[in-house]
């Protein structure tokens, strides 16, 4: 019996051999095409060009008025007041928020419930309502004092003279910020592995030192991104204190355009200053996050400034190589 698997080859015919693979050097490399990506890039470029053309040609922007007021003494002083309010509220808010965070993590039902209630109340009430309340505190308590609980008052002072307008704004902003800071810090502390605290306790470290030297440095990597976002929001949120007639940036801009009627350029002044301040905060946040990432990332990526310096050094090295005289190979052979 004979098994036939295909047509028989004619006598004398050579067996077919598979084609040899092509040389990779001779292959034509065709880059991948992304028509949708190019179309989106063109659309974005057109929109940006239209926006820039409108900024340059629309007379309503009044760039001359913008230039007159952006660095004026009144506006610069208002920026300084805005920075002061932001700094005070940030420091006090995060200090109180850290205490509230550890109260929520406490095993004491009273401490945990009190912290949860504070966070719930102050996150529920809008900031502007809290500011107006603290601004009118003297209507509720004409005098504030120290004394024996439920007993005689040993020392008291008028509420308005003790707190004042700036004090009321700082108190309102700080208490409001503390409620959010508490949840940010608590989330960062919870993200740290419990074994870190157990190992520190096994070494005999006191509880406070465990928190200060072990837990918080590791929690900062989780705390900083959200905290930076919250501080940026607080910087812009200081504009709410205009209801208290405090001369911060937005209030002062309102006063100026209320006098001269140049609404758009004055709002552009406020916008430019807010963009500059938030950009500075973003840069500070970047370097602080980089500092606290040293334990987890042994070789952090270079900073933008380091990349710029490296690029400048590369350009200088390339320019130096181009300026070097070219020695013919024949001369090199003679020297040898």
UniProtKB/TrEMBL annotation:
Residues 79-285 form the ABC transmembrane type-1 domain. The chain crosses the membrane at residues 38-55, 75-103, 115-141, 161-182, 263-288. Residues 1-20 are annotated as: Disordered. Keywords: Amino-acid transport, Cell membrane, Membrane, Transmembrane, Transmembrane helix, Transport. Residues 11-20 have a biased composition (Low complexity). The keyword tRNA-binding does not apply. It is a multi-pass membrane protein. The keyword rRNA-binding does not apply. It is found in: Cell membrane. Gene3D superfamilies: MetI-like. It comes from the Bacteria. Its main location: membrane. PANTHER family: L-CYSTINE TRANSPORT SYSTEM PERMEASE PROTEIN TCYL, MEMBRANE COMPONENT OF AMINO ACID ABC TRANSPORTER. Belongs to the binding-protein-dependent transport system permease family. This is ABC transmembrane type-1 domain-containing protein.
């Amino acid at each position: 019996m004979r098994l036939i698997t295909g047509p028989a080859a004619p006598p004398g015919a050579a067996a077919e051999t598979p084609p040899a693979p092509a040389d990779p050097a001779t292959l034509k490399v065709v880059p991948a095409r992304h028509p949708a990506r190019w179309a989106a890039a063109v659309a974005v470029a057109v929109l940006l060009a239209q926006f820039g053309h409108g900024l340059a040609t629309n007379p309503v922007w009044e760039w001359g008025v913008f230039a007159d007021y952006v660095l004026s003494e009144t506006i610069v002083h208002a920026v300084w007041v805005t920075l002061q309010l932001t700094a005070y509220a940030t420091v006090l808010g995060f200090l109180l928020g850290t205490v509230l965070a550890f109260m929520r993590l406490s095993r004491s039902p009273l401490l945990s419930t009190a912290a949860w209630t504070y966070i719930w109340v102050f996150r529920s009430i809008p900031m502007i309502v809290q500011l107006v309340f603290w601004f009118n505190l003297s209507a509720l308590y004409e005098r504030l004092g120290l004394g024996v609980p439920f007993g005689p008052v040993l020392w008291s002072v008028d509420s308005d003279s003790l707190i004042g307008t700036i004090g009321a704004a700082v108190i309102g902003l700080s208490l409001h910020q503390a409620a959010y800071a508490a949840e940010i810090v608590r989330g960062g502390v919870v993200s740290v592995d419990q074994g870190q605290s157990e190992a520190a306790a096994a070494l005999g470290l006191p509880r406070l030192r465990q928190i200060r030297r072990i837990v918080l440095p590791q929690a900062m990597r989780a705390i900083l991104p959200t905290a930076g976002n919250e501080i940026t929001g607080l910087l812009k949120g200081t504009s709410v204190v205009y209801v208290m007639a405090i001369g911060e940036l937005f209030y002062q801009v309102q006063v100026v355009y209320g006098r001269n009627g140049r609404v758009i350029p004055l709002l552009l002044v406020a916008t430019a200053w807010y963009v500059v301040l938030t950009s500075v905060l973003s840069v500070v946040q970047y370097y602080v996050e980089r500092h606290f990432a040293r334990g987890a990332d042994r070789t952090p990526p270079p900073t933008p400034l380091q990349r710029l310096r490296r690029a400048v050094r590369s350009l200088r090295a390339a320019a130096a190589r181009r300026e070097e005289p070219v020695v013919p190979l024949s001369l090199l052979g003679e020297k040898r």
